[in-house]
Amino acid sequence: MHLLLVEDDAMLGESICDGARQSGWSIDHVADAQAARTALTDHTYAAVLLDIGLPGDSGLTVLRTMRNRYDATPVLILTARGQLSERIAGLDAGADDYLVKPFQFDELWARVRSVIRRSQGRVIPVFTHGDVRIDRARRVVSKAGVDVVLSAYEYRTLLALVERPGHVITRDTLHAVVYGSASTVESNTIAVFIHQLRRKLGEDLIRTVHGLGYVVGPPAA
C-alpha cells in the first residue's frame, strides 16, 4: 500500500514517514499544495494524509480539487485545528476522517486502515466489458486475463469513463478529471490517452461520439 503525506512540518513529516515504513507502508512526502496536486496527478495512492494549514494554499483546496476530478482516494485530515466548525468543513469538502494533532501513531495507522477498508467497500470492486476487467479496489486492469500496464493519466481517463458507463463524457470533463480544471495542458492530449487505451485494451472498449466526447458501454451482466 502506497500513501501520500502532505505536511509542511518537516520534523512531524519525518516522524510519520518513519512510522509508516516501520508499519509496512510505502509513503511519499510533500510539503505544499502544489506539490500535492502534482503527486496526485502523477501517481495513485491507497490513502492521503492531508494537513490543512499548508504554505501557498489550504489543504481543503487540494481535497476539493481531488473530489472535483472524481478522485475517490480516501483522505485522512491531520490538523491542529480541532474546532467543530473546522472538522465539519473538512468532512463537507470530502474528507473520510479527521485526526487532531497531537495524536498517537497507533491511532493514526488504525484510522488509515479504516478509511482504506471503507473506501474499498464504497466502490463496485470490478468493472467488466468483454474481456477487459478493471479491479478498482486493487487498481489492476487486465485484458483476456493478462494484466495491462497503464500510465497514471491513462488509468485516470479510463476510470472517469467507467464511473458512468453508457454516458457520454465530454473532452473538457476528461481534461479536468485527468489534469485539474486549472491546467493549461493542451486538451488534445485526451485523444492521445484514448488512442493508447484502445491500443492496449481493444478498439471496441471506448466509442467516440463525434462533437460530444467518449463513452464506455454498460458493465457486462
Describe this structure in words.
The protein is α/β, with parallel strands linked by helices and about 220 residues long. It folds into two domains: about 1-120, Rossmann fold (3-Layer(aba) Sandwich), CATH 3.40.50; about 125-215, Orthogonal Bundle (Arc Repressor Mutant, subunit A), CATH 1.10.10. It is built from eight helices and twelve strands. The strands form three sheets. The chain has a five-stranded parallel beta sheet with strand order 2-1-3-4-5, with helices on both faces. The protein is elongated. The model has no long low-confidence stretch (mean pLDDT about 85). InterPro entries: CheY-like_superfamily (IPR011006), OmpR/PhoB-type_DNA-bd (IPR001867), Sig_transdc_resp-reg_C-effctor (IPR016032), Sig_transdc_resp-reg_receiver (IPR001789), WalR-like (IPR039420), WH-like_DNA-bd_sf (IPR036388). GO terms for molecular function: phosphorelay response regulator activity; transcription cis-regulatory region binding. One of its GO terms (biological process) is regulation of DNA-templated transcription.
